[in-house]
Amino acid sequence: MRILVVEDEIKTADYLRKGLSESGYLVEVALNGLDGQHLIQESEFDLIILDVMLPGIDGWQLLQIVRRKAQTPVLFLTARDAVEDRVKGLELGADDYLVKPFSYAELLARVRTLLRRGPPREVEQFKVADLELDLLRRRVTRQGERLTLTNKEFALLHLLLSREGEVLSRAQIASQVWQMNFDSDTNVVDVAIRRLRAKVDDPYQPKLIHTVRGMGYLLESPE
Asked: Which helix (H) or strand (E) is 159 found in, with range?
């Protein structure tokens, strides 16, 4: 499931990205309100975690933008703990309100509760052509044959499958799979793609992992 975190405190944003990614979620982070607005308008998320005090556009305004588009669960995460702030957030359509400093265990419990409230989605299994990935059993097969992948290869394939047909930049891939800022001098993404192709694509037809020159990579069936 995809979670958007809009948080201008870099340490808190990195902490949430790392924790939620390790808990099995795909996490996008925006460090200001304008970037958050762009992601909300251009992408679909299963949950949004919003700080209230943000540069550019504040959390109250972002919540209104979310509610004009969808009923995506929204969790406010903020240092503002006055009763009137909580009431305002809930009246605007927030689903929950957690005050900083917070326990990650409590945040994770609230995230799971909010995600359970949403409509059920078939996100545990992915299939493109004859490639199948079972997220819960951490099992990958192609043409019925079991493939042995490392943890990072599994995470990379999961990301590509979950964004089927979408071109992902090296920066996006590095951020999601390695929780790192992309360095143009680092070829970690290209090496990982080559190794994944060697297992997933090289022995089989059709080829599913494609390079889009100057942009990144995508996974899709040519049919």
From this structure: helix 151-162
pTM comes to 0.54
DSSP bridge partners of 134:
125, 139
CATH number at residue 131: 1.10.10.10
CA distance 220 to 167: 10
Between these two residues, 88 and 114, which has the higher pLDDT value? 114
Whole-Å CA distances, 123 to 97, 116, 144, 165, 178: 26, 13, 20, 16, 21
CATH number reported for the structural domain that contains residue 70 in this entry: 3.40.50.2300
pLDDT of residue 191: 93
Mapped onto helix, strand or coil, the DSSP state of residue 106 is helix
Give the dihedral of Cα atoms 143, 146, 150, 155; nearest 10 deg.
50
Q: Quick one: 45 and 110 in the same domain?
A: yes
Q: pLDDT band for position 120 (50/70/90)?
A: very low
Looking at the fold, whether 17 and 38 belong to one and the same domain comes out as yes
Rounded distance, CA 22 to CA 18, Å? 6
Question: Phi and psi (nearest 5°) for 133?
Answer: -130, 125
